[in-house]
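Whiteboard transcription, Tuesday session. T.W. wrote the structure tokens on the left side:
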């Protein structure tokens, strides 16, 4: 799937303007135009360390890492390389959104520190809504990548080269804060985890930096890769912003002032859910985009409306709020962003999981057991659990996560095989779009006396 930037730029045919934009970005350097035919992979550049912008444009970088000496690991180090640890366990990979964290620049003696760093980055992610409420939908895996040397290339200066497992390096594309990786090497480690829906690469560094590789993997199926410095808190915020692209499919809400090619957008209505050519009155009248949220107070401050400037353009495109996480670091997602993120969570996770296997027919001494995640938010959401026998609701069992077959005896007197089902539905007020339909799921068993 193409990134938000490529969708917008394809509509207006101005991809070649990116080089000028990046050259003018604070702390940035000129980059090659991110045209579809150019080599490499497109990444988002984080905003400057001493600014608030979440990003400062996009560029194309090689898929390979920086050249470095060949690794020489001992037999013991090779044995530790690639070991997988489940840091957060909320259920089966089939029913949960699986985040895979891979570290770079950690020697074998530093793997315990990598696990600590991975847990801390997950805690940072889980402190941001809607991750806080929905953290029960996630599994987190750590994959040990043993590096021959500690730290990563480009730290502290561009001439520093270190022998690391993923060939991570700052000063990517001559931009100090752009932290790139060798994507094939990352994929080799990610493939060792049971499942991957989202990938986070942690560099063993305190230097500010990161990158967003937001193209889904065709081979491993993950939504994208975020890179971040393990020892830099602001880098973690960059990584959270990048998940807005990969999971929420949200566009950037920042823009480039003073750039003629991005002064005014005149193209078609973008597909992204959080930018629009429609001002509030037209959006409400056409019942389009985030019209359901207009006027509501947003967690990032102020009411949801149509604020001009977004999708890199100063004029002609509107964003839902003045200053959300898709525009600035250290900000929450706005209401339309929260809704999109929840929809992204449920593309990978199910709200109900079978504990009792569904393959066999349950009989008198058996119990049908299901599990639902714990939702930790306090915004009035309701998790509704209902049981059905042959499609007819068994109202006395509402809210339960298990039912004994013996309790169904009055309905099973004919001794036929029947279908017992449980449906769980997340009735969160944070989702108003009826097109986000994955908030409900059902599992079924065959039962008979």
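and on the right, the sequence the group agreed on:
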């Amino acid at each position: 799937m193409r990134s938000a930037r490529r969708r917008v730029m394809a509509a207006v045919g101005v991809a070649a303007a990116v080089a000028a934009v990046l050259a003018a970005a604070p702390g940035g350097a000129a980059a090659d135009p991110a045209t579809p035919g150019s080599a490499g992979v497109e990444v988002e550049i984080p905003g400057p360390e001493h600014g608030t912008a979440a990003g400062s444009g996009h560029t194309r970088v090689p898929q390979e890492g920086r050249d470095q000496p060949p690794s020489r690991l001992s037999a013991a180090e090779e044995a530790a390389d690639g070991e997988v640890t489940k840091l957060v366990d909320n259920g089966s990979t089939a029913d949960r959104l699986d985040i895979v964290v891979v570290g770079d620049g950690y020697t074998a003696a530093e793997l315990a520190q990598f696990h600590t760093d991975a847990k801390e980055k997950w805690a940072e992610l889980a402190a941001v809504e809607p991750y806080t409420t929905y953290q029960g939908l996630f599994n987190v895996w750590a994959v040990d990548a043993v590096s021959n040397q500690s730290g990563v290339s480009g730290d502290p200066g561009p001439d520093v080269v270190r022998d690391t497992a993923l060939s991570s390096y700052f000063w990517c594309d001559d931009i100090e804060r752009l932290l790139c990786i060798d994507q094939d090497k990352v994929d080799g480690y990610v493939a060792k985890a049971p499942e991957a829906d989202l990938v986070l690469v942690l560099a063993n560094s305190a230097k500010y930096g990161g990158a967003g590789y937001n193209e889904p993997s065709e081979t491993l199926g993950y939504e994208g890769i975020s890179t971040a410095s393990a020892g830099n808190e602001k880098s973690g915020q960059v990584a959270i912003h990048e998940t807005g692209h990969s999971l929420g499919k949200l566009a950037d809400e920042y823009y480039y002032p003073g750039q003629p090619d991005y002064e005014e957008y005149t193209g078609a209505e973008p597909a992204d859910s959080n930018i629009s050519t429609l001002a509030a009155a037209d959006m409400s009248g056409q019942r389009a985009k985030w019209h359901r949220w207009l006027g509501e107070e947003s967690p990032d401050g102020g009411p949801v409306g149509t604020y001009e400037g977004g999708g890199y353009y100063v004029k002609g495109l509107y964003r839902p709020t003045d200053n959300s996480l898709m525009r600035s670091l250290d900000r929450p997602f706005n209401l339309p962003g929260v809704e999109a993120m929840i929809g992204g969570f449920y593309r990978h996770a199910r709200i109900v999981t079978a504990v009792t296997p569904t393959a066999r027919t349950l009989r008198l001494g058996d119990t049908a057991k299901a599990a639902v995640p714990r939702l930790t938010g306090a915004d009035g959401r309701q998790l509704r659990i209902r049981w059905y026998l042959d499609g007819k609701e068994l109202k006395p069992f509402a809210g339960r996560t298990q039912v004994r077959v013996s309790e169904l005896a009055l309905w099973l007197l004919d001794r036929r095989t029947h279908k017992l089902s449980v449906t769980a539905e997340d009735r969160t007020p944070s989702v108003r779009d009826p097109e986000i339909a994955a908030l409900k799921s059902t599992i079924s068993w065959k039962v008979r006396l």
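Someone added at the bottom: Residues 153 and 169 are 5 Å apart (CA to CA).
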